[in-house]
Amino acid sequence: xxxxxxxxxTQGSAIEKKEKIIFLHxxxxxxxxxxxxxxxxxxxxxxxxPDQRGHGKSIAAMDSYSPLDFGRDVEETLAAEGFFPSWVxxxxxxxxTACALAHLRPEFVKGLVLADLGLVGGAGGGLHRNLxxxxxxxxxxxxxRDEARQFMNQNSPDPSIGQYLLAVSVRDAxxxxxxxxxxxxxxxxxxxxxxxxxxxxxxEFGQRGLPVLLLxxxxxxxxxxxxxxxxxxxFADLPSIRFQEIPGTGxxxxxxxxxxxxxxILTEIRYPRPPRG
Length: 277
Known about the structure:
Rossmann fold
């Protein structure tokens, strides 16, 4: 399935010389969520940010929502657009897609930057089950943003999840607040991720000597400190796979600590940092 996508960094006469980056959003998001980060990076990079299966303008009735299905969608999209090889940045659910793509088509991927998700099964600390429950009770729409925010504050299993959904919400023609995803698709995605172990895919990519950076928000409950240390130990013999914590933030680290996140990406790509505004 070819995905709808946002694209930035297409200006200038030397576009063919620009490095390529693909950004993969988390569950419930769309490619547009990356616009503030792309605004900083679009001068030196070409950027593509798809709406993944079941999200945004890539909503279609599908039977399967496994990480491999998500990865094949991105593979098809990149092949159609000639957008490879590229750096692949994934947040939350987007990590599974990024790893699946690296497994399916390693030649499409120059390196991986993976932000805040445990590598085995669902989200840590019981959050996976709580998120399924939350999605089932989430109304299809709210009359206004204040009521949506109140619901999130009272029911979201993690503050970053409620904040994220508010950020991607849209106001329809009637002024009501809606969300750009297929709820049943998200529930299927959660269920089909339950038994997935991303470590073999990351390991085979790292064994090629290709770079992988795994980022954790220091306060994250989605990728717990215990899981982070276990995963770091698992890859201790592969120097191309690095682990980094960003303090003072949780699961929403790409958006709560935007500059630190951008700095981490640029360090991994070994590109000079743009001046801070």
